[in-house]
Every structure is written in structure tokens, then in C-alpha cells.
Design a protein that fits this description.
By secondary structure, the protein is of the alpha/beta class. The protein is 30% helix and 24% strand. Keywords: Metal-binding, Zinc.
């Protein structure tokens, strides 16, 4: 049985703010250690429950955060940038399930460091359904007929996963006080919770169905300002919805919609504010 882990950083226990997730800031090295430890709890329990292969995709920022020398020795690590499928690089039909570790809530919603890929995004939409990183990634997994069997992060990310994916197992390792303040489990208690939830998710994986995306999804991205929408609109095939900052793209399938999202958000980040 093959298991896929997409590991983000904002939802790791003990990480309340940017100083832990930004490589230029003073708490970042502490954040890397805690991120690697949480991944290892899940990996170890996966092997204890019948998994023969575990692929771990570093899914935060430049995607080179996990400490390879400290990672479980039997796991395979996908690390670095640029990846054609970003947070879901390497996933295909051969996997029995996927787990999202260290995840956060979507933009414009409560949650620790909540956002959707970049801070200029207010909302992502698939056929008018609002989604965040968790939702887009789950839809891409569904395209390959892979169910997302567990989501771990803060309480708001857990709630988002439960509303989107019936019967998904969730592990809330911290409770939101504000966007930059949390009530956390200790690393040991978080690890014990992740161990318990990983085992439960694997034993109950057949109760979770893949989140099947629309056959020809329409991707919508609502940006914070019109300049970002103008940059995103430089991608061929897009249109700006009149009177809004929403840019839409008609995709042939979910992988194309996902890559369109990556291109549009990268373009939007070129916007200046002077």
C-alpha cells in the first residue's frame, strides 16, 4: 500500500506566526524541526499499519523546509522548487490514499495564518465552489482517484476538511485564538494525536471516497486588487469578470486547472502597490 503525504508548515503545532515559517526570520529553524517531527510521527505509524511505500512532498513556500537528514529513513522525499504540480507533485493513480499534514484554513476565513497560496488571493473557486489549498489539492487527488483520508493542522483547517470530504479523519493539533495566536498541543502530545489519527485513518480509508472534480472545471480566482487580476489575465484563455477582481479560466481537466492556478498566482505576485 502506497501513501502520499503533502506536508505544509502553517498548521504544525507550536507555530503561531510568520517568524516560524519564513526562512528569513528568527524562529524558522525551530519551525523546520517541528515540521519534520510531525511528518515523522505520521510516516512511522503508516509503516506500522501496512504501508510499504510513503512519499512525502514538502509543500511549503520554496518547498525545501523538511530536514532530509532527520526524516524517517524509509520515506521518499520530494523537495525543492519549481514543481509542475506544487503541493501535489508526484501523486498518481498508484497511491491508496493521501494525507495532508500541517495544513491551514483558506483565505478570508478564520484560522492560524489562513491564506490561499499567496496573500493577494481572497478566494479560489472551482465551478463557483469556494476552496482553499486543501480543496484544490483534494480535487487534484480525486482526479487520480486517490482519497484524502486525513487532514492535520489547526482546528479551522480540520473543520474545512470535514465540510469538504465526508468521513475524512482530522487531527487538530492547535486551536485558533487569532490569525497569529494559538493554543497548542506540546510536540509530544501532537505526535501522539497524529499517531492515533494516522492509524485510524488507514484502518478506515475505505470509508472515504475521492473528491471527484468536475470534468471540465472552471477555475476562478478573486484577487485583493485589480492590478493582480490584470497580471493574472495575461495568461491566455483567461477573462476578468466585469466589475470584479475575479479571473476565470475554463480548463480541460483538473490538472490543467491546477497548473493554471499556479501560473495566475505567480503572475499576480508581480503587482506593485505604489
Amino acid at each position: 500500500m502506497k501513501l502520499y503525504l503533502s506536508v505544509d508548515m502553517e498548521g504544525i503545532s507550536g507555530l503561531p506566526d510568520e517568524t516560524f515559517v519564513n526562512s528569513r526570520m528568527h524562529n524558522y529553524e525551530r519551525g523546520r524541526v517541528l515540521m519534520t517531527e510531525e511528518a515523522n510521527w505520521c510516516i512511522a505509524e503508516a509503516f506500522n499499519n501496512g504501508c510499504t511505500e510513503v512519499t512525502v512532498n514538502d509543500s511549503h513556500s520554496k518547498m525545501n523546509n523538511l530536514l532530509a537528514e532527520k526524516l524517517h529513513p524509509e520515506a521518499e522525499l520530494i523537495t525543492g522548487d519549481v514543481k509542475p504540480f506544487s503541493m501535489m507533485q508526484g501523486l498518481d493513480e498508484s497511491y491508496s490514499g493521501a494525507m495532508f499534514i500541517g495544513y491551514h484554513a483558506r483565505a478570508s476565513m478564520p484560522g492560524v495564518m489562513s491564506h490561499s497560496m499567496i496573500f493577494g488571493v481572497r478566494h479560489f473557486y472551482i465551478n463557483d465552489k469556494p476552496v482553499g489549498e486543501l480543496g484544490l489539492n483534494a480535487y487534484l487527488a480525486g482526479f487520480y482517484d486517490v482519497p484524502v483520508i486525513m487532514a492535520a493542522g489547526d482546528d479551522c483547517a480540520a473543520k474545512e476538511a470535514e465540510e469538504l470530504i465526508p468521513n475524512v479523519t482530522t487531527a487538530a493539533v492547535k486551536q485558533t485564538i487569532s490569525r497569529t495566536a494559538v493554543k497548542c498541543l506540546s510536540p509530544l502530545k501532537a505526535g501522539q494525536l497524529l499517531t492515533e489519527k494516522t492509524a485510524y485513518a488507514l484502518k478506515n480509508k475505505d470509508k472515504v471516497k475521492p473528491l471527484t472534480p468536475p470534468e471540465r472545471p472552471v477555475l476562478g480566482i478573486e484577487f485583493a486588487n485589480y492590478g493582480q487580476a490584470e497580471w493574472a489575465h495575461l495568461m491566455p484563455g483567461t477573462e476578468i469578470i466585469p466589475g470584479t477582481t475575479i479571473v476565470q479560466f475554463q480548463a480541460k481537466d483538473m490538472p490543467e486547472a491546477y497548473q493554471a492556478m499556479l501560473v495566475m498566482t505567480e503572475l499576480a505576485m508581480r503587482t506593485t502597490f505604489c
